[in-house]
């Protein structure tokens, strides 16, 4: 099947050049869920682009009768971040003008839903699907105010315009997948939200991290938090309800790389997820047996970040993916000085047991820079 | 009188070089209030350095009997920001490693004071000065936890270490003055907090903006918000109390400049404030008559920011300091294109009346970049 | 008259977005000289964009019979530089990937013309116009090799591709004008080349600087140096010849600004130049009397740059445009330290007489940064 | 034996903080050659710091009778470059203020030696060591002018001050070793100069590249080129002379890394070189048999750089260290677009046979960015 390909204007630069987004829409023969997948929101996190390209290649080979619902794909979704360079590196994690993390800028309806209890009360007796549509209408009405502001003389800063453009494509999605990787060097894993652990296994990855603490305004959070809030509100009011709305961030390996293993895991997991969810309906599809899928789950509240306690060079560090015990040596700092002393080697030991799931690519550190992350 | 000059270690860099802070402490013969003044927290905002230097020069000429209490001065308080360059410019508003605004990183006790109501109840019958000391002790105990974390193997990111160093010098101050300027081009004005309007006049500036909305974790906010919260809590419990604790941010003109007029206003205002507050006790001091001082007050909630609605070049813009009416033309965008069209000129009109108190230095704009700010 | 407007592909970014150049070609009814004018090669130097827009507006009002030859206009000629930001500033003087000055990257045929003497000998008896065409053919044949390299699998770095695109539009021009300004703050002046002093006056500016020393590979240099070399070679061989080929760099005021005065001087000077050169043929054109035009000429070899001899803040600096005498005080450095000393004020005196024609916008300096420039 | 450790003031920053160099001087009991070794001139090239630290550790274990001459060690020799960050990366290859490559700034006496023929003629009959001392005196006299300029009111830009500081420590050295690595990912290899191929083998590396083409003003070049020029001048005048003066740049693996293998090769090679040169005189030293040492030599003129011919993502690239033949596929570009087309995959083939000795770390490329380097 062939996609509809739409090019969406994003930003006019000072030079008059224009940046755009491009969305590949595969529309199935039967109506169904809307899946939204994007990649490269952070400039250095490119692995997802290969995943999307392979997904396009795959979808081109199936018939529209094999697709129930629709799949929207947005590779290289952040031109400002993707194209930025500092020397030969890709530092595009942040908007350099506003110093905002490109993944902490999104509009979260939950923060504006002052009347959530009233809304929920009004929906208590209604069918889940009706509630979903009513809530979605409410979200969209509020969301439309942003466009009014964008079109006013005072406008909005670019990060808010950009967030609007991306969110306008997915605000009515059912399943949202944001393809990231580490800026540094990391294992492959999945971020998921509460009560979505069963679906998490469909991605066939070894590790999953529950987002139980929030930085705020990330793409996946902004999408699902209003629905989690609504579910919680129903629960308080005595009705158990869970919407079939899911948001995922896949972390596929290391920054500035499209490591073939990580890409392969990404494409395998997504295809299986779409199959399990009934979006892909292909009789001969090689079904992964996720009942036996071993996945280790933890939570973002159990992440420990290690920052360099002195300036210097990192050596003898444990490998990414290692399991460590409290008091194991994690790394050494080779610390120079300008006080006529010999260089010094400082050993750093683990405070707790855990999995070293990310290490810095850069082995030079100023005091207070990140060396590694451990999850308990 | 001579100051005590202390050099405080701040950060060891990867190269082994070290950055430091230097504090000039003028200690009066009589005990009294502690005043803390710093400058250049944002790298481009240098005007306050000249103010502090002139204040040092002035204090060197008086006797310690003319000083009641003590004045701590910390110029160039952010070496990472002050020394940063991008081409010939000073972009040091943000930590480039963490992409955090150097003035949105500070530790705010209010956010951790879970038991404020209990504390307030326990202090309801006590003398104001006793309450102040008890509360300060509480704050300091919590603050001390940060040092424990800094000294642990996992450490803390540099922004938190830096915030700790600055706040450890002023957490027990009575009056705190943070000397800023615009990154862009702006008038001279003062940010103040609720119930401190009378003291605001002592600074002899034409404009004051009440901080009734917060970005969060700014230096002045982090200092005073716990006290404002305590005052509010007392009020709810039926006791009217106001602590003689004040925080100010002076905005002294334009970025990358030490404009003599702005510097002169800064030094004049601070000296008068210190005199009015009884910190400076000099019989022959030329007392400004602030009873007649005309100061226009507004609030941060009344700030309108205008962002470029198209990429291009800004021309025919109203001057900084202008008063405008709704529907006045504010500026034009000369907008180029790459679509084989002639360049276009777009007029932008004011949505409301107000004072144009800041304009961008850069007249080239990508879509969504700041052009000017108006306060109603 | 209406221009032909052509959009020229420049660069595909990693995101798939494309940057372009746009050239406005005003073609006169009569054949004649080709004039090429561009602006904003350095990202912060935007004043020329307004000049080009006003020139377009002007040319739209005349008839093609008033134009002899053709005028090509390329505003915002360097999208990579124009659109770059560091915080709110425009640091786009350099390619950040290759760390090359965008105006030191151009292809200079003189460096490759190994057989210039042989060529000149072969042309000794020919008519000047025939020589011009023969030499231009020789230059173009060599220039065409760059395109072959661009189209090879190994390609070329972007700076060389970009240089090729700009130079391919102007390599056959007769008159070339590159519109710059200071990154910092400067007077309006003109760079010119040897034996073109008379034409320089047509620009009606107060100051002209002869480029008698070269940084190498600047846009104006790369255009005219092969012709200057040919003239010199003819002279050595005993024939005096001067081609009516001219290159100019107009410096129009300060960076990140389109100061109306500088823009007005730019447009006035260019129009008068085009009129004097016979490109504009308008009977009622208000002819400037350049016979009385007072223009002060100097040479780039007489430029003295003052670098900060200590880190600190610049104050009490002489104004841009001042004339100074040797031993006059030029500026002060307010120098802080981290060695428990009071701040220090250091006076800097002029080594020679001269005109202060540029001063740094940034009044904060690390040791060795530029403070001002004087031309003797 | 213990070194003398000297701390050398380098630069005062705007904040008043100071950067320094630190040199570890191991002085042997017997006079002899002076060896100068530095590391980390480019900010991301940190591997040499571990080499120097291990060399210090080694030298601490020997006696001063085992050292003939002296060894000066300067790790982290460029604080501005070492400490620079852009997001988590180390882009410190360039001075961001002047946009100069930190290794293309050095003072090269050859460029100023206008009277080299006259000098050589005056030395034709003298002993080699006398010539060396006379020439060194001449170089030093010229070099001293830089200090005069640094101390003048107009000063010098920082890059020239920095170059002066490093060169003042090594201008009289006999052997100079500059420890680099790739910014990207590369094999371990050695840059050497003409007529020094035999000594090159002492470093026990697999590959050596003769610097037969120059970028200009690199640290190793600036040191040795005056001596090569003198040798060439003697040769022209009929006397064969070679000074025992050598300059080397070791390239130790990949950027932002201290890969243990690369560090081990570095320390092994340097120790063997010092032993072979008679600087280390240790009876029991495990002598490498370099007569059998297989080292492949090539020349910098045989380097081919491949730049991305389109923007996109690099995949299926040959591994670093591979040998390729002409027409082998080198890599693919996964190229996205904003013109409503499917993504495209472009194959790039080798133009020549050769060794892929460097590949870009970043697999995202804007058009014209470096993908890999091959040496024939």
From TrEMBL, chains A, B, C, D:
Sorted UniProt keywords: Hydrolase, Metal-binding, Zinc
Domain called Succinylglutamate desuccinylase/Aspartoacylase catalytic: residue spans: 31-112
Superkingdom of this protein's organism: Bacteria
InterPro entries attached to this UniProt entry: AstE_AspA_cat (IPR055438), N-alpha-Ac-DABA_deacetylase (IPR053138)
CC cofactor: Zn(2+)
Protein name: Succinylglutamate desuccinylase/aspartoacylase family protein
């Amino acid at each position: 099947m062939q996609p509809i390909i739409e090019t969406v204007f994003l930003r006019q630069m000072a030079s008059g050049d224009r940046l755009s987004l491009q969305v590949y829409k595969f529309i199935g023969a039967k109506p169904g869920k809307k899946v939204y997948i994007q990649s490269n929101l952070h400039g250095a996190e490119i692995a997802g682009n290969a995943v999307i390209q392979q997904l396009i290649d795959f979808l081109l080979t199936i018939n529209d009768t094999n697709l129930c619902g629709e799949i929207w794909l947005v590779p290289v979704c952040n031109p400002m971040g993707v194209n930025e360079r500092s020397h030969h590196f890709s530092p595009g994690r942040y908007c350099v003008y506003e110093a905002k993390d490109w993944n902490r800028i999104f509009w979260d309806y939950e923060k504006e839903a002052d009347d959530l209890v009233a809304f929920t009360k009004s929906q208590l007796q209604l069918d889940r699907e009706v509630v979903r549509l009513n809530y979605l209408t409410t979200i969209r009405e509020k969301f439309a105010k942003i466009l009014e502001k964008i079109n006013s003389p005072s406008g909005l800063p670019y990060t808010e315009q950009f967030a609007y453009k991306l969110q306008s494509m997915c605000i009515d999605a059912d399943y949202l997948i944001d393809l990231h990787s580490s800026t540094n060097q990391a294992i492959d894993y999945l971020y998921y939200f509460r009560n979505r652990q069963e679906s998490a296994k469909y991605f066939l990855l070894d590790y999953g991290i529950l987002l139980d603490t929030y930085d705020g305004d990330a793409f996946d959070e902004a999408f699902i938090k209003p629905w989690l809030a609504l579910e919680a509100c129903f629960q308080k009011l005595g009705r158990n309800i869970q919407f079939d709305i899911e948001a995922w961030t896949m972390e596929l390996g290391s920054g500035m790389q499209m490591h073939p293993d990580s890409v392969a895991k990404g494409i395998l997991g997504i295809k299986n997820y779409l199959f399990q969810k009934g979006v892909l309906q292909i009789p001969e599809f090689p079904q992964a047996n996720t009942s036996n899928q071993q996945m280790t789950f933890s939570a973002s509240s159990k992440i420990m970040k290690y920052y360099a306690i002195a300036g210097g060079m990192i050596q003898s560090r444990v490998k990414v993916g290692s399991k460590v015990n409290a008091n194991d040596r994690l790394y050494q700092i080779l610390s120079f000085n300008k006080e006529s002393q010999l260089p010094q080697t400082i050993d750093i030991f683990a405070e707790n047991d855990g999995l070293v799931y990310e290490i810095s690519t850069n082995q030079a550190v100023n005091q207070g820079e990140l060396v590694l992350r451990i999850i308990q």
